Amino acid sequence: MQKLLKNYRLNFLLATLLFAGVASAAPLPPIHVVTVDPLIKIFRNEAVTGSAHGQADSARGEQATFQVVVTSSPVDLKDVRCTVTTFTRTGGNEQLSDPQLRYVGYVGSSISGLTTASDILRPAPAMYPDPLLPIEKIDVSAGDNQAIWISVPIATDVPPGDYIATSTLTARRLGVETSATVPLTVRVYPATINTTRLNVTLWHQMWTHDNWPMPKRYSDGFFAVLNGYVKSMVAHRQNWGWIETLDAIQFSRDKEGMLQADFTHFDKWMDTLLDGGLQMVEGQHFAFRTKGWRSDFGVTVYQPDGEKWTSKKLSPDSPEAREFYAAWFPQLQNHLEEKGWLDKYVQHVGDEPLDANVDSYTTAAALLKQYAPKLRIMEACQSQKMVGTVDIWIPQLDHFHKGYDFFKERKAAGDQVWFYTCMYPAGEYANRFLELPLIKTRLLHWINYRYGADGYLHWGYNFWTPHPWEDAADYRQAQLPGGDANIVYPDPDGPGVIDSIRYEAMRDGIEDHELLSQLGEKDPEAAMGLAQRHILNFDKYDTDIQLFRETRQELLKALSQ
Q1: Helix or strand run (H / E) with residue 525
Q2: 1-54 pLDDT, tens per residue?
Q3: Integer Cα distance of 48 and 37 in angstroms
Q4: Residues 456, 209 contacting (CB under 8 angstroms)
């Protein structure tokens, strides 16, 4: 972690020397420490206002979050540390679980969204608060802010009430120890979240990627990395996982020349996802564009090449493709059925089909429908010409907006409808770009509730750029804005990942959705009224944080009656 910490230590020696003379002539003022709503992104070099006392409202089963901010003025602060006492219930001796303390780090982004939002915090290039650094101390340069992120797990069986703790910050200024304290209160309501119903997936990749190598494919180290990802996902209420189905299969031919599939690696991958707490698994696409964006889809076919099996793309209506999938898909369906996974696995065909190539998509999907008819199909899509083919429709958020009547019809017909975001839509639409207010990431799942979308998909869990700590934007792939390709960061010290404040906001939004859904079961009009207070339209929101906190209180109180 020392390697990681060096990226965030900005020691301005000149500033220290300039202030040293002043400091020696007069007593230094107390260090400036306040609590700030965790939905507010704290930039290093801006004036910060906050409260001397932090309060968080929480349902049981959630995490209460505090953001404590220290400003170093007029000299550097060295070895800034934060501790928090145990949260204890007022009028009793019940205690909450130990809080987790992390320091908010900063990453660069060189690319903004393709259309600038009116509420953009800072246009790229800029440094943005995002990663949550699991370190014990940090230095803060003169004039800078440093946010400390305090997460308090709330068990589902704790008694409701106010739980009190004290946060203490210590540091050295010019060699002298100094400290400040901030009282914290968690108000726990009787409302309870045991599990969440919203379908959520963020695609993870398991290949060596730029500067971030992976252990040998399918080794113990490989699955340790995957397990680290799953732990992070489950902790953030993600409930779907991703498997590279075809790549995980070892093909061979028996004595009669019949195709045989070895599921050893596939099974270990599935076990890692499901045993780790994910509820559903989506199989990677088997069809890919043959040329450009509007080109037809070809399907992946594995064939023997000497002692190895290699893949190539063929037309989905070719005899070779039909022969391969006529042998492969029945084995996949039978294996899933034998393992009891048939209701936990859904198959992708080809990503984001358009009207221009939807015919080749449906031809590819027909192979699955014919040879593995029990498997459902899910797809991020930009065409509506797949009725009878797709079971789970996942339009881009702006396409969901424009085609809302169509997608309501698909839900009425028994299909699921989710939505997805990526580098699109930009502009005023909610997304998870670094430059956007954090509340717009949280409100993604209020959109789910407001418009009846069953789930959310994003392609970028960990598609790291070559230097994700310096520039989280990817200029090589279609000018991806900062925050699109990843919502976690590589951990140089282990198989896990470094979480982010955006991932925390997304988790909180998923839990908000669950609370709204619970209220909707007992009072649909009240629940929808709360959602409509902030989701004015697909691309128009009330992002006032004080109003949002009041809405959350109303929601918690309504569920606690």
Answers
A1: helix 524-534
A2: 555 555 444 332 322 332 233 334 456 778 899 999 999 999 999 999 999 999
A3: 11
A4: no
Q: Residue 347: which of 310, 385, 306, 299 has the closest Cα?
A: 299
Helix (H), strand (E), coil (C) string for 541-557:
ECCCHHHHHHHHHHHHH
Q: What SS3 state is found at 317?
A: coil
Mean of the pLDDT values across residues 228-244?
A: 98
Task: Annotate 110-169 with three-state secondary structure.
Answer: CCCCCCCCCCCCCCCCEEEEEEEECCCCEEECCCCEEEEEEEEECCCCCCCEEEEEEEEE
Contact 309, 287 (CB under 8 A): no
Torsion sign (Cα): 262, 268, 274, 280: negative
Q: What are the pLDDT digits (tens) for 422-475?
A: 999 999 999 999 999 999 999 999 999 999 999 999 999 999 988 888 999 976
- Residue 302's Cβ-side half-sphere holds a number of Cα atoms within 13 Å equal to 21
Helices (H), 310-465: 319-339, 358-371, 397-402, 404-412, 438-442, 444-450
Torsional sign, CA 301, 304, 306, 309? positive
**Residue 16: per-residue pLDDT:** 31
Residue 385: is its pLDDT beyond 60? yes
How far is the C-alpha of 132 from the C-alpha of 303, rounded, in Å? 45
Residue tagged 């230097």 (tokens):
467
Whether pTM exceeds 0.85: yes
pLDDT tens for 497-547 read 999 999 999 999 999 999 999 999 999 999 999 999 999 999 999 999 999
- Residue 284 in 3-state DSSP? coil
Q: Which residues contact 167 (CB under 8 A, 6 or more apart)?
A: 54, 66, 68, 82, 83, 84, 148, 150, 181, 182, 183, 184
Beta carbons within 10 angstroms of residue 237's beta carbon: 21
Cβ pair 215, 261 in contact under 8 A: no
